[in-house]
């Protein structure tokens, strides 16, 4: 097992034309003693496997750019990446290594590289200036300073504030859309002073009211979210006639 770059250095001197270097499952914790040292070795290296090595700094990942013909990198299971999500790992590595075409056995498309580089800018954009990597400044020169992505909450709305109309009076009521029509009737008993058995409910979607009019809420077991109720919509309560 390789434990230090000094051992790799000797290997490079013995085999300067090496095209593939497999350093997986080693205790190697850094790449090179200096940039000059790394740049002199493995001038024909096209593929390097560092799976399950001990690399724990982004500076070591950046040094892979010093191999002039490097095309493929394998970097799974290293300490540096343990606390990153899968998307962060792949995007940050791709953005730091502009010349490689294959990462962890998967080809990097042109579109993926653009997305990764833009992700890289946004990932670091709010960090202190003194901690921004050199690659950040290079990419900002290329893409410019990007706007943060808008955060969109795609979870379904769980509550709504609706206008309850009854005998000329209007009251705003906060309802749970996870409840059923029967639950809503129970909630409205104290609002309209009617027994649930004597209520007839009509739902009005304000956005399409003119086109479709009110919809009677006939089925007690139907969930309220199935009506697509939103804030500001109306529930009209009409007493049942005997």
From TrEMBL:
The lineage of its organism: Eukaryota, Metazoa, Chordata, Craniata, Vertebrata. PROSITE patterns: UBIQUITIN_2 (PS50053). PANTHER family: U2 SMALL NUCLEAR RIBONUCLEOPROTEIN A (PTHR10552). One of its GO terms (biological process) is mRNA splicing, via spliceosome. InterPro entries: LRR_dom_sf, RU2A, TBCEL_Ubl, Ubiquitin-like_dom, Ubiquitin-like_domsf. Residues 150-242 form the Ubiquitin-like domain. Gene3D superfamilies: Phosphatidylinositol 3-kinase Catalytic Subunit, Chain A, domain 1, Ribonuclease Inhibitor. This is Tubulin-specific chaperone cofactor E-like protein. Belongs to the U2 small nuclear ribonucleoprotein A family. The keyword Flavoprotein does not apply. GO terms for cellular component: nucleus.
